[in-house]
Description:
about 90 residues; Enolase-like, domain 1; four-stranded antiparallel sheet; 3 helices; about 35% helix
Amino acid sequence: MKKNYIYETEGTCSRAILLTVEDGVLISASYVGGCMGNTQGVAKLAQGMPLHEVRQRLEGIRCGDKPTSCPDQLATALRLIEENKLGGRLKEA
């Protein structure tokens, strides 16, 4: 069953990530704000991948001297989805 989420990012130029997930697979991701070319590229590359695989590849990526990045924020959102931790910055849409 497809589920849609919105994740409010923290510490990045993007403001949010819109996500569609089905059976543990990332169907689509779309960033609100941020560096459009980079965020579109990350979202396209992750499309169709299992959530845990996307997380393994993107967790810990930093943007300059920031402690996070747009890819890292995607990994955080997917972790929260996998752990079913709705509320706070992650909501069903």
